[in-house]
Structures are given as C-alpha cells and as structure tokens.
Amino acid sequence: MKNGFPEDFLWGGAIAANQTEGAFLEEGKGLTTVDLLPTGEKRFPIMLGNLPSFYPIEGEYYPSHEAIDFYYRYKDDIALFAEMGFKALRLSISWARIFPNGDDVEPNEAGLRFYDNLFDELRSKGIEPVVTLAHFDVPVHLVETYGSWKNRKLVHFFEKYAKTVFERYKNKVNYWLTFNEINMLLHLPFVGAGLVFEEGENELQVKYQAAHHQLVASALAVKAGHEINPDAKIGCMLAAGMTYAYSSNPNDVWDAMNKDRESFFFIDVQSRGEYPGYAKRFFQENAIELTMNEEDEEILKNHTVDYIGFSYYSSRVTSTDPEIQENTTSGNVFGSITNPYLEKSEWGWTIDSKGLRITANQLYDRYQKPLFIVENGLGAIDEVNSNGEVNDDYRIEYLRAHIHEMQEAINDGVELIGYTSWGPIDIVSASTGEMKKRYGYIYVERDNEGNGTLKRMKKKSFEWYKKVIDSNGENID
C-alpha cells in the first residue's frame, strides 16, 4: 500500500477573480453578475434570482468593486504564496475582462494581457496556475439581453471565450476547470448561472434548461481545450459533501441518496457523458422538458472531463421526520439537520474532517477519475492581538484534521492531484460579502464596510502551512 502524498502533489491555495481582483471596470472590463451583489439584506434575494437592477444602485456597498485589490497587488501576494512554497494557485479568469459584454466580436486585449502577466508571475515563482473559466460571474449584458444561461446562445458565447483563452494561454496553463461548483445553479441560480426569474416562470424548468446549456458548453470547452493543447487537463467542479441519513430508517437513507444525486447529476453528465436514468425519471415526474439540439448527446458523450475538482467544507444530514427537520443548521448554502456528533463553525457550518475522506472515496468509486480538492477551509473571525499577531490555532486544527483524512483517502487508493485550500489570503466572502469571515493564512486589513489599508500580514497558520508543504504533508503538527 502506498503511504503518503505523491511527489508531484500540487499543494497551494484557491481564490476567485470576483472576490480578490477589484478594479471592476478597469481597462475595459464589463460589469459581471457579482458586481450587482451588495452587502446586507438585499444580497441573498438577488443571489436567488430577484434582481432589482442591471446596474449598481447608488448608496449600496458592493464589495467586489475593490475586493482586496489583487488586480494591482498580485505580485506582492504571489511572493507571499511562493514564500509558503505553493506548487499551485487555483484562480479564475473574469469572463468580462476578456469579453466585456460577453458577445463582443473581438476580445479585450488589456484583459488578456493582465492574465498573461499574472500567469507569467506565477510561473516565475514555480507555481502552477489552475484556472477556472467561470467562477460565479456572467457578463451582465448577457443576462440583460439574452436571459443568461436560459438562452442557448450562451453556449456559443462561452465556447468562443474558452477558445480565446485556451489559445492565448496554451503555453502557460495546464490545468483548467470549466464551471465553479456547477451544482450551485440549483441553490443560488443568479450566482451560479445569472438567472433572473420572471413572474409566473417555471423556475425548476428554467434551472435545468440552463443546466443543460452549461453542460453542453462545458463539453465544448473540453473539446476545444484538447484540440488546442492535447496535454491540457480539463476538469469539472462540484460543491461536494456527503449527505448522511439521520437514522437507519430506509426513508431517510433514500432521501440522503436523492440529495446527493441532486449534485452528482452534473458530474455524472460531465464525467460519464450522458444523462443518468434517475435524472430522466425526475424530469418526467416534474414535467421538465429539456430543449436539446440533435448533436447534444454526442457532444456530451465524446468530450468528458479529465478529472473531478471539488470543494469540501462540511457534510450534511437529512431526515424525513418532521420533528427532526426542525433542528437545522446552515452550511455553504446547503441546509442541513444538525449533526449531534459534530461541532460547527461560527457561521454554522458543520466541521467534519472524516467527511472529506468519505466524500473523496465516494467520488473516486463513482467516477474512477483523478480528483482535485480545489477548496477547503475554515471561515472564522480573526483578531489581531496587541503584538500585531493573529494566532489562528483553530484554523490550523481544522486544516490539520482535513489533511490527515486526505492522506487516509490516498492510502485508501484514491488518486488525488492536489489540494488548494480556500482563501489563502483573506478575501470577500462569496455567500455574505463579508470580510470578517476570514479563511486566509494572510490577514488583509479590511472591514465589512470597505474601510482599511488593505495591508497584508502573516498569520500563525502561514508558517504552519509552509511547513506542511515543505514536508509534502508529512509534518502537519
């Protein structure tokens, strides 16, 4: 039995353009959906598809507009990542930096040049870019003009965007992901797919039609990527986490399986190349009729992904007992019955390191393709003490436990490419828009209202993670 992490294991961190870059209209960039998400009580309704305006509203604070100013500070931040010994940085390209409106005839050269410089900087430090094409940002023009992913035309626009960046960066990027947490479309449809619902619209029908368009677009991106660079590895990405049955009641077990299938559906199509039988039954029983082109089934079948990327923050619990259902907690958008055996984070997310091993085994058993853990971390309120230090031992404890279970999964026979923990530097929270919900090894002086110098400072976990990487996961104490 092999023991420990592979020699070429990709240790690093993960960020997203819309949560780090800022410079939201600099050098020709267009508005994206995330640029319309304010902080406060209006944020969540918009994330669900209730958009009040296609333009930022005066008086609202939009954290993505400046974020942590990575657009101008990336060299300094990458130097800190290199100091930790990063082998990889997962990041995303902002679609609207390349095609400001999404349907432009020609790409924006300034946007292309920015990512050229960014990837060059990473490579100069020996850091492999792992690049997501769509990380929760659709050009607003595509939403306003076409209805976003409701419309088949977005397949063409996305394919053109993918071909453009594949061609431009074919000598700089070897690892790609098509859609970030593609299953989030069902839970936060505006965030996942730019969907805005009209009164009386069949929302379930709209979601799955949009999902079909994204799945076809993903397959066409895989096709284009392999044609442009046959050595490129192109993956999909799932917001993962096992759903446990609250009891051994068969009804609970069946409900847990169906909740998992709701998410697996997307990866089943992207990895296996066809719609599973359980999805077809679901469509039939819910009067969902997908409009497909004649060639879609062939496209999906012939252009499956090379690997499965996934995020893991927590497990979930489900029950069919109405009394048990009243005892719920939050957890990365996915609601869950409270698990009496586990603790929770300050944001109510269940902390379940063993669940990472279980999830990795389940995904590998299901798909038999390499896995890449591209998000995992603990959001917490970090305090700077009187000595100017952040002693985030709770984060170290969380990550240590998860890395241990990751090693156990490898010993189980799971093929893992790498581990990029979420938010190696403090960034804007995707769900709440907050800065006080911090994940990083690097503290960023910024508050929820946008005040602060944006000064960077190493936390205690910085040196700890550096030691982990240097020992290739052997020294996690």
From TrEMBL:
Belongs to the glycosyl hydrolase 1 family. Transmembrane segments: none annotated. The keyword Transport does not apply. InterPro entries: GH (IPR017853), GH_1_N_CS (IPR033132), Glyco_hydro_1 (IPR001360), Glyco_hydro_1_AS (IPR018120). The active site is at E375 (nucleophile). Coiled coil: none annotated. Keywords: Glycosidase, Hydrolase. It comes from the Bacteria. It holds the Pfam family Glyco_hydro_1. This is 6-phospho-beta-glucosidase.
